[in-house]
């Protein structure tokens, strides 16, 4: 399958949001944070705006994989470049339909772990890497991620990401190393009691691994 990698147009931001929701449809964290159709509607709108913001902000970036011939979007990657240590992030106000406690606690946890792992070292932070389920395991995600790795390599900069447990092996094949674990107790899908252990891994790639 032939596809090209390029920045999206602002009009493609909605399609990126849909791919995000499809790819993460079974993710326990997403459903803990956005447990209803109303909350997911808010997330869809937020993700659409977030893609446009990534196009306009010089310290952020977004790339999409487009199928040759049809232009269909197959997947995307988003990142933020941290050239200075991260400061404390102000919490965005969320509607009551969202479970803010799981949104804010995840943001705080991952920021703390990245600070412990990276210290004052600059890095590219891959925030989202999603492939349409219809095109999974066909090289889309690896091409997108390698594009970001090449940008980081040109600056001699590391790439950091938080991996779900089922994606750890994928990232390891591309040279990422597990640096630290992170975990939260979350409710099962459809529940409100935090009975389920949710885990991710903070992983780092450095230019000599490309």
TrEMBL record:
GO terms for molecular function: acyltransferase activity, transferring groups other than amino-acyl groups. It comes from the Eukaryota. Pfam families: Acetyltransf_1. Residues 19-196 form the N-acetyltransferase domain. InterPro entries: Acyl_CoA_acyltransferase, GNAT_dom, Trichothecene_AcTrans. This is N-acetyltransferase domain-containing protein. It comes from Clonostachys rhizophaga.
